[in-house]
Amino acid sequence: MTGTKTYEVAPSAARLTGSLRDIGYDFPTAIADLVDNAVTANASRVNVYTHFEPNGSYVLISDDGDGMSERDLIEALRFGTRRSYETNELGRFGLGLKTGTFSQCRRLTVVTRTTPKRPTFHVMTLDLNRIARSDRWDITAGESSPAIERAKDLLRESPGTVVIWEDLDRVLPERYAESGWGRRRLRSLAGKTADHLAMVFHRFIAGDVTGRGEVVICVDDEKLRPWDPFAPEEPERTVLQEHLFEIETVNGSSEVRFRGVVLPARDRFSSVEEFERMSGPLKWNRQQGLYIYRADRLVQHGGWSSLRGIDEHTKLARGAIDFDTDLDESFQINVAKMSVDLPPALRQMLERPVQELCVLADDAYRRSANSGGRPDPATKNSKASETALRDVGIALKAALIQDRSLAEFRGALDTLRTRHPELAKQLDL
Prior knowledge:
There is one protein chain. The chain is an alpha+beta fold. It folds into three domains: about 15-225, Heat Shock Protein 90 (2-Layer Sandwich); about 240-355, Ribosomal Protein S5, domain 2 (2-Layer Sandwich), CATH 3.30.230; about 385-425, no CATH class. It has 15 helices and 14 strands. The strands form two sheets. Strands 5-4-3-6-2-1-7-8 form an eight-stranded mixed sheet, sandwiched between helices. Helix 2 packs across helix 7 (about 180-200) and helix 12 (about 345-370) crosses helix 13 (about 385-400). The longest helix has 27 residues, at about 345-370. The N and C termini lie far apart (about 75 Å). The relative contact order is 0.11.
């Protein structure tokens, strides 16, 4: 009998690192992946710095977390680190530090220290230009540059880690690396990153995550104010009852939580400025929908995940879905933590609470329009009688949702649907 042979077929380092540069990151989401690492390392403060200099620009992401030993740093720079992740850690595949970085630049350096009493730095660099020449998975220690010296200065007083991006070929293409356009672009990206981090990590910034204090996040020395999509300070918002759903996994089951919130219409917000701020980066229509949190970190911000379509009348509706990391496979979380798919079982269970949320949002929108708020662009050309009937129907449905004790009234509506189907249709029942 002939024995089998085993061959190790190692991938080409140059080819694979090149292909991993294009897996869906943009500048803000790449930075967010590095903030995940800082939060996991117990950081209480994270700073993002952008520095423009002709042909020498760089980005720093510093934290005051636990720092890393030399051995841990080498492992962190491995593509697909072998370390295991605990439940509800923000990491997932062991790729984010590298793939997030190389989606934007060609040279990654990490400066870190763990010892509180004496500043012993570990400095290691992963350079795509070097890998392209050698086709080896090489990292180098002890490199020097102005950015590395600045990173060491940031760690003089306490342990922590600084990630450095240099050779920003995807951020500042060579022909713009010296121009005023390049300076403006880097400034613009910093602003977009601030908005993104304030949204994605709003629970951490606000200190709303169980078991840990506030996390201060700054972009170019500007402290971020959390952008909570559910406007908890607004007294006129409507918070619906929380729903708990059990989702089966290979190891048993895990819980998913859903809670809907109807935000106030413009005329009921505490101020016009706050109404505009809560419209979010994508503005009201595109910010309606589901906000999905993985271990308190936002991974989807708006949209209805194909449960329904975007509608002007439901733009005040927002729903929070929370799941833990043991459901990562069920939600098909991707490497960049930028997209999720609702499990089929959960999709079915969400249909009714999402419908109820949208009915209440529609009612709030129409009541605002009818009381002198912003005109309803979707119905301004409709006949007044048809619009009035539809408003009555939506108001009836909203009343039934908010007061579930109206059993006799529900029965009367069922009779109306049977005896007068056309009227029920006009009432949108």
